[in-house]
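User: Here's a chain of 92 residues. Predict its fold as tokens.
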Amino acid sequence: MRLIPLLLIALLALVQAELWLGKGGLSHVVQLQSQLDAQEQTNAAARLRNQRLGAEISDLKEGLEMVEERARSELGMVKPDEILVQLGPPKR
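Assistant: Prediction complete.
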């Protein structure tokens, strides 16, 4: 009669030991969570850097075209291999 409760207690102790100390146990889960948190911070910093670089690239691509267009229309900018022809107002 006394053997069954002792066997159940031993089984419970074995399961608890596996839970606390074994692979996939709580200590391993805490370690993995710590690694996950560190990786998420690294990823967030990389995402922010990528967004900034993307915005900078966009500004460089589109911004220069806008600056060049404005310089051409307002300042009469001409590239070295271009010819600019300006017509005056029609004479009456």
